Amino acid sequence: MKNKNNSKHRKDTWLPIILGVLMIAAVIGLVLFLSNMSEKASESAGDGELVDYEEQGTIKLADYNNPGIEILDEKESDDPPGAFWDDYVEKCSAKKLPQDLVDEAYSDTRKEYEGFAEVTGTTYEELLNEYGMTEDTVLSVAEDTVKGRLAAKTIAIRESITIDDSVMEEKLMDIMGYEEEDREPLDDLIKDYVENYGRRPRDDVYVEVVKQWLFDREKGKNS
Fold first, then answer.
1. Helix 135-158 vs helix 80-91: angle between axes, to the nearest 10 degrees?
2. pLDDT tens digit string along 184-217?
3. Which of 5, 94, 104, 156 has the fewest C-beta atoms under 10 angstroms from its C-beta?
4. Which of the 8 DSSP states describes residue 122?
């Protein structure tokens, strides 16, 4: 015959052990969840925050010290630095672009195309058809935008390239096509940019600065 007291004692012994195991499992699960969230956050640095994305494993830079890209002049291109940069970014490879940055760039790119379609009196879909584009094309443009931003910020942190408020003002005005009489305080320029061009004005200014720095340096080698 079983001893009821011994049975009750075993239950009293196992109960705190089981509860302890469950609590440890919950703590481990919480730590893993927060670690995963932190990793995702670290992949997507803030606007203007410099990160070595090649060291992080996100992209693989082409050799920017010896890019091997033809330098065009004004007779061959409306934007020689832009053409040079596009060729350079194409040589870079993306290992794992942060999805939230791609989604953000896709949304901004689509918004830009929709605005252009509205100005020209067409729909977004008609605009894509007219230029032989699809949603995949828009996504590809967004991915190239993100890759360019990450490449520029990686080069900037390696070469100690920084931007101050005066550079921000000048570059934002250039990008938006503002004349001197349109000059506004920097906060207002940033607000205009975010509303009409994209949510990463500082990243985009880094692209402009690094693009020009790289172009001028390569051009100087060939002069």
1. 90
2. 999 999 999 999 899 999 999 999 999 999 999 9
3. 5
4. -
